[in-house]
Design a protein that fits this description.
three-stranded antiparallel β-sheet; alpha+beta; 5 strands; about 60% helix; 7 helices; extended; Arc Repressor Mutant, subunit A
């Protein structure tokens, strides 16, 4: 069955919407990270923990698409900043779970509360059936993101451009510059 012109236009509009939404999400995460002194990955991880509750480092790796090593360093940073704490897993004392420090999370209310309220107003316009479709689309797109994070992780690094390194003594001081 050949795709109609309208269907092609709609598919293109949806694909462009995914790209814009993804890009805007990156920008918002960076803005919040800049305001809070965290990295965008730290900010997103706090969001995963808020949604999921206490989880293991392995589960955080599954949710984020990050490697377990990257997640361990991430947890170390967040724990040092008192945003999370590690505790024994009640189901298996050999493992630890990571949980949010809810008191610190309140710092993010000025960023997220207005967005939650605005999102709720937008979603009010949709029927239950439409919301089911949207929820399914987001589940599918999350799976898409995790699949492609794994795929991209296995690709070789792009060649890096050569950096110019200068080292000179100026007024008795050794100066290094990298461009």
């Amino acid at each position: 069955m050949a795709a109609t012109s309208k269907r092609k236009d709609l598919v293109n509009e949806v694909l462009a919407g995914f790209q814009r939404s993804s890009g805007q999400g990156v920008v918002l995460s960076q803005l919040i990270a800049d305001k809070s002194g965290l990295s965008p990955t730290d900010v997103e991880t706090l969001g995963f923990l808020e949604q999921e509750g206490p989880v293991t480092a392995g589960r955080l790796a599954e949710l984020s698409g990050l490697t377990t090593g990257a997640v361990t360093r991430l947890i170390d940073r967040l724990e040092a900043a008192k945003y999370v704490r590690r505790r024994d897993d009640p189901a298996d004392r050999r493992r630890v779970v990571v949980e949010l420090n809810r008191a610190r999370l309140k710092e993010f209310a000025p960023f997220y509360d207005p967005m939650r309220e605005d999102s709720s107003r937008i979603l009010e316009r949709y029927s239950e059936k439409e919301l089911e479709l949207i929820a399914r689309l987001f589940r599918d797109m999350n799976d898409f993101g995790l699949r492609h994070a794994e795929r991209i992780r296995s690709l070789p690094e792009l060649p890096r451009r050569k950096r110019l390194k200068l080292e000179r003594k100026i007024l008795g001081q050794k100066i290094r510059v990298e461009l």
